[in-house]
Amino acid sequence: MQVNDLDHERLRRLAELRASNGHKVLSVYMDLDPATFGTQPARAAQVTSLIDAADRRIRAAELDHAARCSLRADVERVREALRDGDAAKGAHALAVFASEPDELFEVLRLPEAVPHTVMLGDTPWLDPLVGRGRTRRCVALLNRRMLRLFADTPDGGMREVATVADEVPSQHDRGGLSQANYERSIEEEVRKHLERSAALLFEQFRREPFDQLAVGASAELWPDFERMLHDYLRKRTLGRFDVDVEHVNLEQALAAARPLFDDAAERQLDGRLRRLQQALAQGERAAGGLAAVLDALSERRVETLLYEAGFSSPGYVCPQSGWLGVGPAACPSGEGNAQARDNVLDDAIAAAIVQRAEVCALVDRPELGPHGGIAALLRF
Fold first, then answer.
1. For the chain, domain boundaries
2. Which of 120, 181, 243, 245 is the most exposed place for a label (fewest CB within 10 A)?
3. Is 98 helix (H, G, I), strand (E, B) or coil?
4. What is 285-378's CATH topology?
5. pLDDT tens-digit profile of 86-109?
6. What is the pTM of this model?
7. CATH architecture of 137-265
8. What DSSP assignment string belongs to 281-340?
9. How do residues 166-197 score in pLDDT, each as one tens digit?
């Protein structure tokens, strides 16, 4: 079973956390991609590299003695968590957040690889997590005799939820009927199998609704099966892909279906960017540029925050009111209460998550260039 400990409530709780009394939050991401870190020596080397990076960041940071000591204790706890092989089972990455004075120590197993990273900050570093775990998926594998269903589960993982095999004779078998009649009888059994499979898939949808469906089936079976799907399922179907239905495991099935899910994500992003451009042109329900985006976040009006991957800009945050801005003078609690940030994006992401906004990091997309690399769609 593929695991995913990330859900929106957990992400929101992390986004609300602020380190207290000059302390810092240690955020560590460990890559468990089996293609790169599939062996114990490779993982052990990565743990050593991450811990060394954490030590360097602590030495370089301007901290008082108490904050430095608590962070060193956090590093030891993180070291033990990263070395725990059982805790990483079924995951492609780990995210660990630690702040001893704030009673924070959280280990999240993630279903997709993330770059290994160490960060120190006033809040947990959540950039690698945004946009994950929102869309509920289902993968159906179908051939002439078998249906296998994989679905995202309520706890954020994915598992095989159903396997059905019908007794459909091989086309090479022989019976007492004439060959033509025999072949027609086989095709009738295949048709019944497809109908039962479509009905079972709809029952799965009624029990645990999903947003996207990818079907692993041959080009021969796909048109008939698609016609048998309930309208609700056809609207959610991304298309078909080729796969060895009876022998692939969960990881292999997801890898085969991933291009369909990736294409759907790209189309969704295209739609958001078109909507953003139209809204900005009309001057309503959109914000372009850092100052306008931070104002909208402070007013809790953001529906979707969009920024270029790697975006960085200084800014200010008020720990009392949650206000964000590019300069301290506008802080409603008084200029003296505004705290400078080398990169205010981390606070912007946290604010967006807290107000249940979508967060999208754009990779190799030029659309936000005219707005300094950051923009937002607004609720009002």
1. 8-129, 137-265, 285-378
2. 181
3. strand
4. 60s Ribosomal Protein L30; Chain: A; (3.30.1330)
5. 777 778 889 999 999 889 999 998
6. 0.73
7. 2-Layer Sandwich (3.30)
8. HHTSSEEESHHHHHHHHHTT-EEEEEEETT----EEE-TTT--EESSGGG-TT-GGGPEE
9. 876 665 555 555 655 656 777 888 999 999 99
